[in-house]
Amino acid sequence: MRRHGDSYWHLHRAVVREEDAFDHKTLLSWTKGTKVPRSIESFEILSRIERRYRLPDGYFKAKLPHQARSASGHEVGSDISPSERRRLAWHLPDNFNSLPFAKREEILEWVRRVIISGSTDYRRFQAMATRQRYAIRFPAISYGGTPSSRASADTLDWEDDDRTAIEDPDLLSGVVDAPPRLAMEMANLIRFKTATLTALGFQRNGVWGEETASQKIEHLGLMFGALAASPKGPVKGFGVPLSQLTFGLLVFPGVWDWYLQWRERRRGFYTTWEEDMLSVLLNLVRAETGWLWQHPELARNVTPIPGLISAAEIAAAERDWHAACETCFKHASHRSKEIQRVMRVHRDPFEPIMCVLEADSPLAEYRKITDEILKRMPNEHRYPRAAAEAVRSFLMLRLGLHLGLRQKNLRQLLVCPRGHFPTSERRLEDMKRGEIRWSDRDRGWEVLVPANAFKNANSSFFGSKPFRLVLPDLLDLYKYLNAYIERHRGVLLAGADDPGTLFVKTVKANSRDAAYNQTTFYEAWRLTIQRYGIYNPYTGRGAVKGLLPHGPHNVRDVLATHILKQTGSYEQASYAIQDTAEMVASHYGRFLPQDKAALAAKILNQVWEAA
């Protein structure tokens, strides 16, 4: 303006039309720096100013102190809720309102399908399934976490995103509290399977940890919920009255055959879920050590259910409970083998990141997301909270790529600020958590995680020794890690109680709990991918074309596949994700065959090149 001799009043008269409701004082606030353009209308005015001063398109917008901030004022229709408007605003172009109606509909459909929901068959099935509510909840005995609050299909993995775990969107649908008798029976089962010592007079084979116990509570709740759901409703359950629900029902093969076939009709095929549920049953009715085997009194709680259990079957079970358990064990064994033969995979865990895994260097491809975060980093002095959230997102991905930890271990990682005494290894073992601390010996940030904190603690990878890694100071990692621990983390806490973990939620007026749980950590990661990872052809934002929303476990897939492609070694790939070569071979072998010949040729060609 000074260069062209313009005052803010002259500039306003030159670029603002009569039909525009744009106050000249807004221009004054821009020149003083008290406000910055954010609305669609303001960006249009900026474009006119650029044309007036013969500046390239986007010249002023590139100077905004908050590059990742969404614009306001998109005309997306009155039928869209305010919450969806906020989600969509991040991914719509600035000229959205001036585009033809058909083009706007095309953009909205693409954003909803690709960025918001993810365009996979499983996502579509999940969206349908979550609208049908039927599961039985056990709120009084939920064992860790907040399962009923989860909001995405990939978060349904209570084994902390391990590939052997079972996922199902029906877990989102718990709405009915268990009747008192069923709740007491579930509490008895959980106590039996989680107690440090087996109760006197009972025998047990195997112990459930926190995640496993939470998973079984929900999975069994789904089965009872299906039995109780109305056969005339969309769920098409069996209609068993809540008062008749009891664990004694699980000993009768007819109950299981109905449930397995009900799930097959619902999904269209059998999956690992059904096989896993049968393995739970086998454990419960196993001779001598099964919980059901050791509770014959449950037979007295069972009443005839027409079309499911007859009075004669109940009488036979009351006469010889152990014989009924043996019959059920044989039946479940046969069904398990039959389902293993025909079951299909409904959710390909690699599908959201397939474009990354198929790249020559998967790690370099995924790293582009962290570069995109830094590119759009807000000004810390003007937007301290937004900057803190961006640094947190950056560190989540960077530490995930360096450490290859499971979601649980990364989420529960404690932090010891520089200059403080680190937590002793024995104390970390008691808490089953790792810690990031400054190592004076190595002059770097060290991550120490006791072996018993890992899901596969008994794996040969650990040998009862802790996981220890000094983070490399590459591409400003220490710069942002120091800034986060010293400043940004405190901004996010906003005076709330400190949970002691490295990663904390943004504390707001309606939520004072700063600790992440499995759901919220997954959602934080997924939001980062939506905002910075998925390339948007309509806005030019995003780092990777073809990427879909996903959770933190996929980082382990990136690391294992990258090393496998570079070295061809299952063993070296297993080192990156703290697992065994056998596991890597079974899960990631599909990404190696096309590269085997090239790897061998690379070594053989060295002879010819030397000649």
Question: Can you give a write-up of this model?
Answer:
With 611 residues, this protein is mainly alpha-helical. It has 3 domains: 8-116, no CATH class; 124-342, no CATH class; 351-583, hpI Integrase, Chain A (Orthogonal Bundle), CATH 1.10.443.10. The chain contains 23 helices and 6 strands. It has helices spanning 8-15, 24-32, 40-52, 82-89, 101-117, 121-129, 180-194, 210-228, 253-267, 272-285, 311-319, 321-342, 354-357, 362-375, 384-403, 407-411, 425-431, 477-493, 518-533, 554-567, 570-576, 581-588, 593-610; strands spanning 136-137, 176-177, 414-415, 435-439, 444-449, 467-470. Strands 3-4-5-6 form a 4-stranded mixed sheet, covered by helices on one side. The protein has a two-stranded parallel sheet with strand order 1-2. A hairpin with a 4-residue loop joins strand 4 (435-439) and strand 5 (444-449). Helix 11 (311-319) crosses helix 12, helix 14 (362-375) packs antiparallel against helix 15 and helix 15 (384-403) packs across helix 18. It is globular, with a radius of gyration of 29 Å. The termini are far apart. Residues 143-174 have low confidence and may be disordered. GO terms for molecular function: DNA binding. This is Integrase.
